[in-house]
Amino acid sequence: MRHKLLFSFFIFLIVALPIRSKDFVLTSGQTVVIACSPSEELVVRTALEMLGRDIQTVLLSTTQANEKTGEIVIGTVGQNELISRTGVDVSALRGKKQAFLLSVSPEGKLVVAGSDKHGTAYGILEISRLLGVSPWEWWADVTPEKKGLFKLSSKYQSLQAPSVEYRGIFINDEDWGLMPWSSRTYEPSTVKGEIGPRTNERIFELLLRLRANTYWPAMHECTLPFFLTKGNREAAKKYGIFIGASHCEPMACSAAGEWKRRGEGAYDYVNNAPAVYKFWEDRVKEVADQEILYTLGMRGVHDGKMQGAKTVEEQKAVIDRVFADQRGLIEKYVDKDVTKVPQVFIPYKEVLDIYHAGLQVPDDVTLMWCDDNYGYIRHFPTAEECARKGGNGVYYHVSYWGRPHDHLWLSTMSPYLIFQQMKLAYDRGIQKMWILNVGDIKPAEYQIELFMDMAWNIEAVASEGVTSHLKHWLERELGASCAKAVLPVMQEHYRLAHIRKPEFMGNTREEEKDPVYRVVKDLPWSEKEINGRLQAYDKLSETVERAASKIPSGRQSAYFELVKYPVQAATQMNRKLLYAQLARHGKADWEKSDLAYDSIVVLTKQYNSLEDGKWNRMMDFQPRKLPVFNRVERKTATSPMMKERVAIYKWNGLDGKNIPNSKTLNARKGTSAICEGLGYESKATGIDKGDALMFAFDNWKTDSVEVDIRLLPNHPVGGDQLRFSISLDDAAPEVISYETKGRSEEWKENVLRNQAIRTVRLPVSGKKSHKLVIKALDEGVILDQVMLYMPSPTGE
C-alpha cells in the first residue's frame, strides 16, 4: 500500500509540475538538422541554401536536411504537417501576405512558419540576421563574425509582416558602374553590355536578405535587355522575385534596348499599332508563367514622349486604347481574370498631364507616383485615389541622370529626407508598391536598407528614428566602437550634402541650351562660408582616418566602401571646387584644388582594387564625363566674390514657439517629429496646417526689416498649393505661395540649393520687443531657417 501511495505521489508530481521549456541552442562544429518538406516552393529552398552557407560561415557547422524532424523546423502553413506537429500556434499568420513567425517550441526547436512562400523565405533568412549576418555580407564585404554558440530564449517569438506589398529596386544609369563591372569583371561576357544571371543572382540574394521582392532591371541602350539574356528569367524564379519595369517599359518590354532588335518600323501606336502590339504580345506569351508586375501605358522609346499623338487629348485617346489592348493580352495569355494579375500605371513627367486630363485607369491597376528625382514626392493620392482597389505606389530616386544636374556618383541623399517623405507617403495611402532608383546599388547601401526597412516595418523605423537606425546599422556593419566614432561623421556628411551635393559644387547645369551652364563658376557664397565648409569637411576626413583603427578584423573593405570612400571623396570634391573658387580670386593656391582632384583619382583606384579587384570598374568618379568632375581650369575671376551678409537675427525651425490652431486641442510643435535631422542645420520643422511658429526679437533702430523665409523645397501635399502667411506684431498677415510648377527655373534653383526662399520687407513699430509669426495655410509646410536683415538700400 505504501509503495502504491509513493508511486501515485510521483505520478502526481510529474503531471502537476510544469515542464520547463528548453532554449534553442546551436553549438559550433555540430551538424544542424533542418526539417523542411521537399514540396516547398523554389524560393524557400533557395533561402534554405543561403542559411546553410551562413551557418557554415558563422558556426563552422554543416546542415543536414530531414523531411520529418530537426533542430530547426521550417514550413509554409497549409503546405504540409511539419508546422502543425510542433504545437506552435500559427493562427496569427492567417490572412497575412509574406508574413512569418519564428518561435521556440517547448522542446527547444526553432520553428519557422510562413504564411506563403515569400514569408517562409524571409523567416529562414531572419535566422541569418539573428546569427549576425548582414544583408550586405557580399555586396559590401561585411564578413560575418565567427561564433561558438548561438542561443535563443525558450520565450523567443517574432511575428513579422510587410507594411508595403511590393518592395524593390530599379537598376538605372548603369553605364559607368554595374554594367561594366558585371560584363567585364564579375561575369565576363563576349556579348557587349550583358548583365547576366550570375550578377542577377547576387542582386536577388541581396533583395531576399533585405526582404524585398521586386526588381526593375537595367534598361539603358548600353545594356542587353534582361529578358534577352539567357538565364535571367530562371534566376528571378529561383529567388521569388517579381520582375517589373519603369514608366517607359510597358508589358515587360524594354523598348530602349529591344525595339531596335525585335520591333519593326516606328514605336508608334497611332501609325504602327500592329507591330507594337506584336512586340508586346510576344513577350507576354514568353513570360506568362513568370511573376511579373506589368507596367501599363506607353511613352516613347527610353524616356521620351509618346510618338504619333501631339495634343494631350490625342495622347489620352491613345492610352485608352493601349490599356484595353494590353489588358486583353494579359487576359489571353496570363489569367482570364485580369484583376488577379498585378499591374501598375506610372503617370511620370508628361503622362501626369494626360492623367489629369481625365484618363480613366482601371480600378485594379496600381497608380505609382514619383518624386521630382531629387527626393521630393510630386503627388500624394486623393481620397478617391486611395479608395481604388489597385492602391498606390511610389517611384523614388537616390540616383538620377538629368536636369538641372545629375547625382549619380556618391549617393548623398539625406536619409532623414527619405524617411520624412516616405513616412508621409505611407500615411497618405501609398502602401502597395515602393520602388527605389538605386543607380548601381553601390554606394547607396544605407539608403537602400533604410528604404526597405521602412517598406517592411514602417512603424518600427518610425518609433526608432533615423539616427538610431543609422547607429544600429553602423554597429552591425562596423562594430560598436567604430560605429560610435563615425555616426556623427555620417550625420554631418549627409547634412553638408543636403545643403549642396558634391555633384552640384561646380555651379553647373545639364541639359540646357546655353553652353555657359556647363562652365564651372563661382557659387554664391562668401569667403567665410567657403572656409567654414572646408573646415567642416576637413574635420570629417580626419575623423574617418582616426576611426580606421577601430575597425574589426575582416571589415576593412566594408569600412572603405561604406564610410571612407563616400566621405573622403565628397571632402575632396568640395576641396577641389571651393579652393578653385578661392584661387580665382587670389585667396588660395591652385595646387590645393589640383591635389584634391588627384586624391579623388587615388581613392577611386583604391576602391576598384579592393578584395583583389572584386569591384574593378564598379566605381567611376566621372559619370557622363561632366565638366564638374574634371580638374578645374585655372582662370582669374572677372567679378568680385560675394560679400557676407550678416543677419541681425537667425533662427531655425526648432527655435520657433508653436502657436496651435485654436480649433485644435493638440498643442504640438508642428510636425517636428517627422523632420528629424532635416535642413541646413538639421533642425527644420514641419508646421501643421492652421498652426504657426512665433519668433521673438528685441527692437533695434530701424523702420523696417527684411526677412528671408527658407523652407524645404517640397511639393504640395493636399491640393496644388503651398502657402504660409507672415506677420509682424499686430499687422495684417501677408500670404505667400512657394509651390513650383514642372521644371521651372525656380524649381531648378531650389533643387541645387535645397531650399525654397521667399524674402519680404516688413515695417517695424517702436515697441521694445516684437513677434514674427509664420503660419501654415496648407499641408506640407516645412520651415528650415528664418533670417532677419537690415534692409538693403535698394530693398532687395
Describe this entry's structure for a reader.
- The relative contact order is 0.07.
- The chain folds into 4 domains: 24-160, Chitobiase/beta-hexosaminidase domain 2-like (Chitobiase, domain 2); 166-464, TIM Barrel, CATH 3.20.20.520; 486-628, Methane Monooxygenase Hydroxylase, Chain G, domain 1 (Up-down Bundle); 649-789, Jelly Rolls (Sandwich), CATH 2.60.120.
- By secondary structure, it is of the alpha/beta class.
- The radius of gyration is 29 Å and the shape is globular.
- The longest helix is centred in the last third of the chain and has 29 residues, at 556-584.
- α9 (273-286) runs parallel beside α10, α16 (466-478) crosses α17 (480-499) and α19 (556-584) runs antiparallel to α20.
- The model is unreliable at 12-16 and 664-673 (pLDDT under 50).
- Helix content is 36%, strand content 16%.
- Strands 11-10-9-16-15-14-13-12 form an 8-stranded parallel β-sheet. Strands 3-2-4-6-5-8 form a 6-stranded mixed β-sheet.
- It contains 21 helices and 26 strands.
